[in-house]
User: Fold these one by one.
Assistant:
Number 1:
Amino acid sequence: MKIGRNLPPELAALQEEIEGYARGYGLDFFPQIFEVLDYDQINQVAAYGGFPIRYPHWRFGMDYERLSKGYEYGLQKIYEMVINNNPCYAYLLESNSYIDQKIVMAHVYAHNDFFKNNEYFKHTNRRMIDEMANHAIRVRRYIDRYGLEEVETFLDVCLSLDNLIDYYSPYFEDMKLEDDEDDGIAQEIPKFRVEKEYMHEYINPDWFLDEQRRKMDKEKESRRRFPRRAVKDVLWFLSNYAPLTSWQRDVLAIIREESYYFAPQGQTKILNEGWASFWHSTILTKKAAKDSEIIDFAIAHSGVVATSREQLNPYKLGIELLRDIEERWDKGRFGKEYDECDDMRTRTSWDRQLGLGREKIFQVRKIYNDVNFIDEFLTQDFCERHGLFGFDYNRSTGRYEISTRDFKQIKEKLLFQLTNFGQPFIYVLDANFENRAELLLGHRHEGVDLRLDYAKAVLENIHKLWKRPTHVSTRMDNKGRLLSFDGKEHHMREFEYVEFSG
Amino acid sequence: MKIKQDQSRFRQIVRGQIKQNLRKFISKGELIGRQGKETISIPLPQIDIPRFRYGTRNSGGVGQGEGDVGDPVQQGGDPNQPGQGKKAGEMPGEHAIEADVNLEELAEILGEELELPLIQPRGEKQIATERDKYSGIRRVGPESLRHFKRTYREALKRQIASGTYTRENPIIVPIRDDKRFRSWKTTTIPQSNAVIIYMMDVSGSMGDEQKEIVRIESFWIDAWLRSQYKGLQSRYIIHDATAREVDAHTFFHTRESGGTMISSAYRLAQRIIEEEYPKEQWNIYPFHFSDGDNWSQDDTARCMQILREYMLPTCNVFCYGQVESPYGSGQFMKDLEQEFPDDERIILSEIRDKDGIVGSIKEFLGKGR
């Protein structure tokens, strides 16, 4: 599926050279294919999330327009793009300078290695380029049959739910909801204890027993909750249990599949970009860059790792953490003895000459994602050295202000941002809410409220699939709330917020 | 490219042609660019697909750099947009943006936005322009119009027929009979012309704000009508107790003071129309903006007379916009309502403030006359 041009001879030679360095450093990658694209092609591919072919949808057009305008006004350009696929495809911008291409290639080989080896990518489809094209064909077929308006509107609905997946479910076997059993519910009709047999019909008269039986049936009925356990993969649940036509079910499955494919890239942004930056700078400075190119390299590299006050740059954070880890494991600055040492002088000159750094970072790239990477390797030293701070919105001044320089709080904030992509945890709680086949979702409140107008819009969209009233239970301003949409109107009422877990 | 279809689809949504339900999620993103030393921002509409997400106000984030607790994170800039956790994908450096729109497109967008109907030019008022087009051939004519190719061909035909043409020496000499000349045909092209006559009350009671409103409104009216008519002409009249015709710049910048005699403007407009814009050939749109204060009831009566006897039968539609001002009584509008109840040829619109402009434009142009 070729869209660009083959490499011109000088770049082909360069690829061979860079690949040699990468292999020499022990990177282990899929076969790598580079294509050269002009800016318009690269904008298109970027808008398609890196793929040459996607199904028709206006949001790709929106991204394309944004990228094109940004390029035309000279404000931004895309240097490179790489797709997690086997073989791994990467695109080079035609107008890049030779040194830029060098950097990009080195960067790409590290991404490729990461895709192949990182644990979180293990379950991704390595033929995704083909799969995306298949999806495009299927969606186009539905459009031919049912009309653009209808299919696109349905896609809008699906996309508004595409974050409601369970990022860990690829690690489990096929999901099944266990059959309902009546375990744990009393089988016998409860009666009052009777000392004397002849008193029985007075203490437990028939009408009382009937009432008890009715009560028990009702209890059984209400316990027969579906699903029995909260389901995090809302998309999966809806595609199985919502009253959809077969093409709708298929479209929903397509969106879900693509969502799962992209998920690991979101889960490992810092580590992945850090890894790639670590290697492009290592390969360039140690091997590939000529003396005459080193200034150009430095300029390009500093652009990649530039910091900003409002947002941590994942490239910067990642590369610095990896370098920090490499140094610590080279010098043996880890473990009980080092952690408990509180003499600053000993600490700064601590060097056991273990030389374990390289090995350690290869291990890190294999088994970590952003959350446990930060959790494990973000140290107080690092935090102070790089001037990290936490910020919050100050209601009284109406602006965002630095709220903390405390290591623990910063780390907590950062982890919160990364966990579940910094998105709320939403579960399916009950598909027969109020015994009226209404759908109850639950938001597991982690200290931050939902954005109300968006939540309402999503409820409307779920209603389009479920076709019965939909609800989400959450907490707002510390009070339990139930947001409902009945097909016509939104309601909000007080509702007991119950803690739950998936 | 397939993505162009997606792009035009997106533009349709932004313009509100399709998918009204998504409109509330359109945000005015912007692209900060540089033009020389100046920073310019280019607005770029973005549509957010709604998803469950956190309210931004109470989340905050982590940044990097100098500063003590309590210092603002952003120096200057928009405090409403802190760094949001960006989504995945291997795309470094994304920013927001958009769009170069020319006036014609703006008018188009305006038309769609306000659901303005396309204006139907009045049928009998189409004038025919005559155009000469050199599309024919004649046997006689001036040398300057000689058609070289045709002449050559005729001469060649003749020489071959008479056997004077030789392959070895292919010289063609045209004689008088061979010559062909270009000639013209006169075609008539129907054309519809339009003139807008803007009249504005500049008496003491019309303040800068009122004039600003008139300025904005007439700009958009102008843009819309220009997109509908080729060769649109605009005339500007200002009046207090007397009226005079001015150029566009003066129209928008003058501040006079004094009394108000609306009839003076109407009389001047009438004269301009009579002299230069015969109603058989022109679509005529007079717009009058005032704060509704007139000097006397006598003058108002004179206005009504001009309107009834001349303006309404002559013009496509007569538009009166009344800008609310702290000094004006707003009486003129009531008088007009009383005089011409339910008359389709006159459109009245009250403009309370700047926000009222859009609605007022719609009232004026929404009828498609």
Note: Residues 305-418 of chain A form one domain.
Number 2:
Amino acid sequence: MAKNILIIEDEENQRILYKEELEKEGYNIFTAEDGLTGLEILDKQNIHLVVLDIRLPKIDGLETMGKLLGKRKNLPVIIYTAYPHYKTDFISWAASAYIPKSSDLTELKNKIKEIIGE
Amino acid sequence: MVKTEYQEIEKKIDEQGYQLELLYKLGKAFQTTFEFEKIIHITLVTLTAGGALGFSRAAIFFLSEDGKHLGNGYGIGPYNQQEAGIIWAELDRQNCTLEDLFKNSHKDYLKKQLFPQRIKELLIEIENLSSNSPIKIVLEKGNILKLDSPQSLLLPQSLSEIFHISSEIIIAPLYIKDKISGIVITDNAFHFKIFDTSTINFLFIILSHAGLAIGYALAYEKIKKNLQELENLHEKLKDTQNNLIASERLASIGKISAYFAHELKNPLVTIGGYIKQTLETDDEIKIKRNLHVIKKEINRLELLYNNFLEFSFLQNSKKENINILDILEDLKISLKLQMTDKNIQFYFNIPENPIIFGDKAQLRIVFFNIILNSIESIKAEGSVTIKFSYENNSAKIEISDDGQGIAKEDIDNIFTEFFTTKTHGIGLGLTIVKTIIEELHQGKIEIYSELGKWTKVILYIPNNEISK
């Protein structure tokens, strides 16, 4: 059965692109444009992994991650952001991976495969 | 016998009349100045002028703050017989009044005459004075002493050298605010007139006046010094504040530059991602959609770039009288690009010749950002109204729209850097607007709004430089 991935990303075009590209890999994709919506989806769906942006409206990615992990302690979260400096924020160490955004999604795809398999 | 007595009385009345007149002139002269040196000069001139009092020379010395030395001396009078001849002949020739002499500067005497120079050089160590030294007695007891020539040898050598030539020497305390703060030495050199009690009493009166005036002068100087210090401090504070503002702005520029650098990345990765996908697909619809996304993201890059340029614009400003209509007409054209698919009416409520004093490029950024916000807040149809008036020496510009308005909780954050409620905003527009209006134009910006109904931005730009 296909694994469920939740993408939390405020940029609509990126959301669409990730969804399409990851669906090609055989994953089932849910998307949210902000952290609160993402948390609601987590409650309703059996999510296997979250791809999380940091700069988000309302509550930011790090706060969102805290809440996600508060709900599901062992939930794999990949921080995917244009801002490398959040890596120094110790909260981000709780993530399974920290990947800088790139136009090439290969690194993201490989990391997801590594964590939850095909 | 009767005649002599009468003459005696007449002489006394004359003398007292002269003394009263002197006192009157002295009082008047003291009122004209708060200058320490001037007051001392006036005192010394009063004592020695005209010779009527019989004082041929006079010197004032001050106690040092620790009370260990007498020094800082000022003197008027001839040093020796030869100088006496020259000085007194000169005074006779010039026919100077007392007021004329008051006006002279003590520094001129210092330059020309020996006595003031010697007095200035003197420094007496109190500790080294013997217990029967007249100076010590005056300083301790506070009374006036009269010495004859042999007694002058009891003075420190540096003083007796100067004063031993007189038959009578008077040493008097100088009281400043009830405290003995120095001494006055005066003598009858060269004409040897005998000092009587009334002359000594008169000296006492003059010195009380002088002490009072010197006290005021010192207090005045202290206040002036404090004031100067306060002013210096204020200057320093202003400098520090300016530095602080400059470094704050610098820090802000650094932060903003870093922000721009990162913010460029989002549209770039999006464009790259879509290009990659486009290259890998044959789906015509997808290709078209992707191109559309790419175009949109490139527009965003452009806007970001412009914003950054605008930000660097703030570094230089050139203020002049500008007609706000020039800016607005120009903006209407560039804002059309932002108004695609929207039907927005512009209403100008602007009097003839609406002049603002400011930097045209910067104000263009201000109006562009505010009006752009208005346009973005209007969903499909609406209006933007711009009203211009003068109020309390400022140009008042109101920009109102009937768009979505701003939530109450967002209004407080509206000027915070990088704060945005838009999905595509970068949250710098109003920060720049605020910087331009408040820091660079010393103006004011106010925002009022009702969520879902309207927003009104009011700008006040001081117009004190406008010449109408």
Note: Residues 319-468 of chain B form a domain with the Heat Shock Protein 90 fold (CATH 3.30.565.10).
Number 3:
Amino acid sequence: MSARLVRFGLLALLGVGMPAACSLAEDGPEVAVAIPAAATAATSGEATMAKECSACHIAYDPRFLPSRSWVALMARLPSHFGEDASLDPSSTMAIKGYLTAHAADSRYGSSEMLRGLASTDVPLRITDAPWWRRRHRFLVARGEASSGGIRAAAKCQTCHGANGRMTDDD
Amino acid sequence: MISCSRATAIAVIFTMVTAGPGGAQSLPSARKAILDGYAAAAKQSDPGFHGFSAAAGQAFFLAHPGVSQPETPSCSACHTTSPLNAGRTRAGKDIAPMAVSRTPNRFTDFTKVERWFTRNCRTVYGRLCTPQEKGNFITFMESL
């Protein structure tokens, strides 16, 4: 949890109700105390992932890769596909926790996402995952999943909408 | 029980303490505090330090140091050659313009500033940037 969220939490605990009650009781300087409604939600790994990962790319669906892949990716953020994406330890842990708990081999995954994946396979690119290559044969055939992949295939949003996630229609 | 006015005063102080940089401070003063910090650090490593240079910052921004991956040869590869423009990441996300005149909250959150200097200096220059380089960079972004 970030220091800022801790501060918000403390502020919310100490500040709730007091200024409003006082302004009824006496004249004096009004104090606006901001209480973020979503403070607890923002502490979740999902919110941290959405914020940090999507600074550079869409926040990919955790089901796209098995948990071992997410562990490997989060362990080498300073060397992330040619860029340094290093992150503070607490954010890294929160994001890794969310990704692994919702990965292809979690209870949120499916056999389709795991089919063709040996237990020793640790794909680091979503475009290397067997399910992705099956479903995107036309892109693979055009070579858009390999060279220049980051410019084409990794931009799920080009075809799949703003968050690039799967929909029932896909 | 404490009085309401006293409770209000405590809330004011607490808000000031908890708001942190960018909350209680104006954006320009938050940016100045960050620049002052880099100036102090630059002076420590170089007693002859005599301030930051927007021109040096521009040269740094446009340079191709030649140590990085082909996709990230320079700052301008993603941010375009003019910081007044929006940029684009390699994975297709928009980046708000770096120029302070276009994105007023640029360089006002020290943690964020350090995080991105660390990442992008390593990516483009293959090393960390010096306080002098960081100060020049921000001074350039303020000058546009």
Note: The radius of gyration of chain A is 21 Å.
